[in-house]
Amino acid sequence: MPLVLDTTVLIDALRGRPAADRIEDLMAEDELLLTTAINVEEIVRGMRPAEHEAADLLFTGLRVVPIRRAEAERAGRWRREYAARGVTLHQADCLIAAAAFSAAGGRLATANVNDFPMPELAIVEWPVGR
């Protein structure tokens, strides 16, 4: 089953932490690993100069899923619904979650579990540095 990798997982992989080994193991098992354009932007924005080549290799091994109208609408509904309960969700997180819901059946690997409270998601917790 496909798995969307959030920015925290991608950063850990780029920094040579155990997430890199987990990603390699999943790829060896033919797991379909995905990310979103938002995650790519977040990585590029915070990338260290020495990480350019590793980032390019990492992104080449992942499928970047699109964010279309359906995902944008789902993200907007989540933000509105949670705001009505007094919970502020970030636009980027809601768009990533919506893409994961559409492309991976809701499977999202992240260290930021609290950023994705949507019950429709199946969060796979990858703590930072592990």
Task: Report on this structure.
There is one protein chain. By secondary structure, the chain is of the alpha/beta class. 52% of the residues lie in helices and 14% in strands. The protein has six helices and five strands; from the N terminus they run βααβααβααββ. Helix 1 (7-14) crosses helix 2 (18-28) and helix 5 crosses helix 6. It starts with a strand and ends in a 5-residue tail after the last strand.
Condensed summary:
The chain has 130 residues and is of the alpha/beta class. The protein contains six helices and five strands.
What is the overall number of helices?
6
CATH class category: Alpha Beta
What is the percent of helical residues? 40-55%
Q: What is the CA-atom radius of gyration, in angstroms?
A: 14 Å
CATH architecture: 3-Layer(aba) Sandwich
Ranges where pLDDT stays below 50 over 5 or more residues in a row are none
**CATH superfamily, called what?**
5'-nuclease
How do the helices and strands follow one another from N- to C-terminus? EHHEHHEHHEE
Number of strands: 5
Q: N- to C-terminal separation?
A: 22 Å
Strand content range: 5-15%
CATH topology: Rossmann fold
CA-based shape? globular
Widest sheet, order of strands: 3-2-1-4-5
How many strands, which pairing sense, and closed or not: the largest β-sheet?
5 strands, parallel
Structure classification: alpha/beta
**Would you tell me the overall average pLDDT?**
94
- Total number of domains: 1
Keywords:
130 residues, globular, five-stranded parallel β-sheet, Rossmann fold, alpha/beta
Task: List the SSEs and their pairings.
Layout: E1 3-5, H1 7-14, H2 18-28, E2 33-36, H3 37-46, H4 52-60, E3 63-65, H5 69-84, H6 91-104, E4 107-110, E5 122-125
Parallel strand pairs: 1-2, 1-4, 2-3, 4-5
Helix pairs in contact: 1-2, 5-6
